[in-house]
Amino acid sequence: MTTSSTIKLNSGYEMPIVGFGCWKVTNETAADQIYNAIKTGYRLFDGAQDYGNEKEVGEGINRAIKDGLVKREELFITSKLWNNFHDPKNVELALDKTLSDLNLEYLDLFLIHFPIAFKFVPIEEKYPPGFYCGDGNNFHYENVPLLDTWKALEKLVQKGKIRSIGISNFTGALIYDLIRGATIKPSVLQIEHHPYLQQPKLIEYVQKQNIAITAYSSFGPQSFLELESKRALDTPTLFEHKTIKSIAEKHGKTPAQVLLRWATQRNIAVIPKSNNPARLAQNLSVVDFDLSKEDIQEISALDIGVRFNDPWDWDNIPIFV
């Protein structure tokens, strides 16, 4: 099987199938990490307003462009609209903040980060607001239908500020409803996806709708260990799982490469990150070998429905119940 190094989106643009995830990249190291990732060959960078590092990510991008490593049109830059900016009157305000921080004229992809509308917090009051809703540690919400937020994003596509729009952490029912009111269909769905949480029916439905999928947390609990997530700490690491290690040894690859190939071989984009130059290169080299049908079946048998990123843990928000 041959896998393209890009996925053709329904917006007409090409998205690299392997990118660099900017979640948890520190402000101190972000600019250099992004620059080095571009030097290594990465062209997709997956960021978000909530990560709090878009200024530094932008510094790395613009330094690489200035040094002639890459042209802007060769990059695919993703960001995500945070929960406090769902009201249509605040969507462009939030996008403009991202574009200003990144020092870019347009985004290649802008996703609704979660299907949750928190109360608006002015940028000058706290940015990124995280879970802050203007009242200490208390959660407050706005009655903004998702379709209203989506329509505001569609207008920004027409303005040329965004090339493609999409969604993140949406369930099948929400997607089913959204596309019935959308003028522009979502180009991408980003979801938590790893052998412990496979969501095969969601993936089958979304791909049949010609919506591309990006997987985050491809290494399962590994992404959440530094957050001291009890669920992650209690779940065996995939890097040491005997099934993954056995398949890796058979192919002469690392467990990380097997986990990433398991996704890309099924036309699912991945966005790993690493500070290590060798691992950076290894993570990018995951379309040049194939897992066997038996390999895929063995990995499929690891699904135990464990979700590490669940808004129910924030404030009993019922996204995935």
Automatic annotation (TrEMBL):
EC assignment: 1.1.1.307
Domain NADP-dependent oxidoreductase, residue spans: 19-303
Keyword field: Carbohydrate metabolism, Oxidoreductase, Xylose metabolism
Catalytic activity line of the entry: xylitol + NADP(+) = D-xylose + NADPH + H(+); xylitol + NAD(+) = D-xylose + NADH + H(+)
Positions of the catalytic residues: 51 (proton donor)
InterPro entries to which the protein is assigned, alphabetical: AKR (IPR020471), AKR2B1 (IPR044486), Aldo/ket_reductase_CS (IPR018170), NAD(P)_OxRdtase_dom_sf (IPR036812), NADP_OxRdtase_dom (IPR023210)
GO molecular function, one term: D-xylose reductase (NADPH) activity
Pfam families on file: Aldo_ket_red
Binding site for substrate: 113
Associated pathway: Carbohydrate metabolism; D-xylose degradation
Positions marked as site (Lowers pKa of active site Tyr): 80
Keyword Translocase: no
GO process annotations (BP): D-xylose catabolic process
Claim: Oxidoreductase is one of the keywords in the record: yes
Bilayer-crossing regions: none
Family: Belongs to the aldo/keto reductase family.
Name of the protein this chain belongs to: D-xylose reductase [NAD(P)H]
Organism: Candida maltosa (strain Xu316) (Yeast)
Taxon lineage: Eukaryota, Fungi, Dikarya, Ascomycota, Saccharomycotina
